[in-house]
Amino acid sequence: MPIAHIMASGMTGMRAGGDLVARMEFSKKMKIKEAKEYVAKKVGVDPYDLSDEYAMRDVREELGIGVITSMPGTPKGTAAKMNIEKALDIKINSCDFFRNQLKK
Q1: Number of Cβ atoms within 10 Å of the Cβ of 2
Q2: Burial letters for 11-42: b for 16+ Cβ neighbours within 10 Å, e otherwise?
Q3: Is the pLDDT assigned to residue 5 strictly greater than 90?
Q4: Concatenated DSSP letters for 17-45?
């Protein structure tokens, strides 16, 4: 866990795009450059904007993929993770688990 935390917080974590890049690095075994390019393309920004808190705040709110300071009516927790699945075209285990729990 310490390495994942260092990688995600190195690009300001959830304040910008570090958490998304780290997710791609660890889940898809991408190198950091490849992960940045993939995430930037999927969320519609330049790779350099991924570490810009101001630019990514708007992107994160627009896509509903979570922000540090919660805003009324914006997705949080599992709802934000489900939006991350859509935005990055990936599967997240905890979201699958949640969907399976709903079926019971």
Answers
A1: 6
A2: bbbbbbbbbbbbbbbeeeebeeeebbbbbbeb
A3: no
A4: THHHHHHHHHHH---HHHHHHHHHHHHTS
Residue 22, amino acid? A
- d(C-alpha 102, C-alpha 88), whole Å: 23
What's the rounded mean pLDDT across residues 53-57?
93
pLDDT digits (tens, 9 = 90+) for 6-19: 655 567 778 899 99
**In 44-104, which ranges are continuous DSSP H helix?**
53-63, 77-88, 93-103
Q: What is the mean pLDDT of residues 21-32?
A: 93
d(CA 98, CA 24): 21
Check pLDDT > 90 for residue 34. Answer: yes
- Phi then psi for residue 12, to 5 deg, are 65, 25
What is the predicted pLDDT for the residue at 1? 55
Q: How many residues does the chain have?
A: 104
